[in-house]
Design goal:
- This protein is mainly alpha-helical.
- The chain contains three helices and no strands.
- The longest helix has 35 residues.
- The chain starts with 18 loop residues before the first helix and ends with a helix.
């Protein structure tokens, strides 16, 4: 029979930092900006909302709105197209059901 060989255990290796990592300075830690008080944070949000609202109203004033007659006519066109397409899709569906039922 053969004798067992003695085994040597190696110490675990720790990866060494590369030259580029060793030469790199540590990253600076950014401190979050803290508002002076909770009131100032609330005031800041309120000012942002006011500015957004003023911009929205200004943009809506620039819009050229259609007159009542144009709005009515275009609404009727949209409704008519919707009804026609609904009827067309319903007819295609019914036709396909009849074809597959006959098979």
């Amino acid at each position: 029979m053969s004798t067992q060989r003695p085994t040597a255990t190696k110490a675990p290796t720790v990866p060494q930092p590369s030259r580029s990592e060793a030469a790199r300075p540590p990253k600076p830690v950014l401190q979050p900006e803290v508002p002076e008080s909770e009131r100032s944070a609330y005031r800041n949000k309120l000012d942002q909302f006011k500015r957004w609202w003023q911009d929205t109203v200004a943009e809506l004033k620039k819009v050229t709105w259609p007159d009542r007659e144009t709005t009515k006519n275009l609404t009727l066109v949209v409704i008519a197209i919707s009804v026609v397409l609904g009827a067309l899709l319903g007819a295609i569906d019914w036709l396909m059901q009849q074809i597959f039922a006959a098979l």
